[in-house]
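Notes taken during the Thursday session

The instructor put the following on the board and asked us to keep it in front of us for the whole hour. The protein is Maleylpyruvate isomerase. We were told not to look anything up and to reason only from what is written here. First, the residues (211 in total):
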Amino acid sequence: MELYTYYRSTSSYRVRIALALKGLDYQALPINLIAPQGGEHRQSTYLGINPQGRVPALRTDEGELLIQSPAIIEYLEERYPQLPLLSKDLTTRAHERGVAGLIGCDIHPLHNVSVLNLLRQWGHDEVQVVQWISHWITQGLAAVEHLIGNQGYCFGDEPGLADVYLIPQLYAAERFNISLESYPRIRRVAGLAAQHPAFLKAHPAQQPDTP
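Then, after some discussion, the predicted structure tokens were revealed:
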């Protein structure tokens, strides 16, 4: 498999975690989102691969090109069901998907670089941009804190789908200097992930395109 990725991309990060948790090998193909010429994702070469011009994109062993991290992760879960990311219990699965959706749909998109750049183009200064970021991340994490369990990872002793989404979001929170002091459950999960080989392997600091 080939993964078009960017070391600091939250959505790429979550796919890297899913691949690592399942023990799947892949070749990382870095796409520089902040290259001086305007970003490799906007160049015709990459647009020919992914017309949306975003990462991640995954080329499967069968040669199919998949886009959007939720679809990629769902494919991986169904194609490689060993070491599952979802619980066997249907209700727990729904809770796991709920937290993943909260992060992937309601937090992350609102601090995506394209959104932040548009705010700047509309005349908002950096103070306002930072306030925007802080508002959406803190509001979202406060909800996650109430939704996850009291021990282990988000929903059990082993990491799963919710953790795959949560840990990259915490990396973004750290980048934007947002404190996790008010979220003891989230900090517990973060502490466990910080010692897990799959999360360590997928961390932005360990990627081939990390500056």
